């Protein structure tokens, strides 16, 4: 099942939607518009309520989805182009893995051989994306005035379904609520300047530098996360393409590792990105950096497509 947060045009109230794909069109089933007898138990009203309700909440939403498919009242649905897509979860902690695809790690070493000598593979590495800088599907993101090297990074992100502390891999696997898409936008000149001081913060956290969405695909529909295939296009040109079999640390390992700092329901942990980022393009990366007017599509085949416009 695919779940999304959205708001109607000119409104700010969060609505919980079930994404219904049909004939190439995306429709959102507005859970709040359904009659009371559409499910066997009370329906969650928000995404966080759905996450915290666990299997009981998902079962109620599945009943509602099946009811809506049978009765199909047009008043219950909204077109994907007629709503404001919100981030799949409200602002939460977001930990982004670094250099976690094998091919991307190799291109990073080739691009900076001196840094490659210090790479380690004993445990995951990562950085924080500020929750307030996460934006939803079809967001417009401004390139900062002092940034010329604005880069893209397609990633798969997991949404944590329950509080975790010092979890095992099995506990972490059971705690994954679902999967969504992230575009880890980066200001490379800031990032690399920070990395000389062994830090990464500003280069990953300008306003809007965390496009996320459009929806969450629940974990029960992803029996093999290594098969998740992701890709990214800029203005229709394919820039990245891989699948999660190339991950160095799989999702359950990432969740278990980062549970050492404590995780809460709705927290986000992203996979890292595959090869093909602009900064490592040869011989000259400059034509590949994002510019105002660019349209970026980051996709995961089973989940959907996350669109971002650079202004």
TrEMBL record:
<feature type="domain" description="Fumarylacetoacetase-like C-terminal">
    <location>
        <begin position="94"/>
        <end position="310"/>
    </location>
</feature>
<dbReference type="Pfam" id="PF01557">
    <property type="entry name" value="FAA_hydrolase"/>
</dbReference>
<dbReference type="GO" id="GO:0044281">
    <property type="term" value="P:small molecule metabolic process"/>
</dbReference>
<dbReference type="InterPro" id="IPR051121">
    <property type="entry name" value="FAH"/>
</dbReference>
<keyword id="KW-0479">Metal-binding</keyword>
<comment type="similarity">
    <text>Belongs to the FAH family.</text>
</comment>
<dbReference type="GO" id="GO:0046872">
    <property type="term" value="F:metal ion binding"/>
</dbReference>
<dbReference type="InterPro" id="IPR011234">
    <property type="entry name" value="Fumarylacetoacetase-like_C"/>
</dbReference>
<dbReference type="GO" id="GO:0003824">
    <property type="term" value="F:catalytic activity"/>
</dbReference>
<dbReference type="InterPro" id="IPR036663">
    <property type="entry name" value="Fumarylacetoacetase_C_sf"/>
</dbReference>
<protein>
    <submittedName>
        <fullName>2-keto-4-pentenoate hydratase</fullName>
    </submittedName>
</protein>
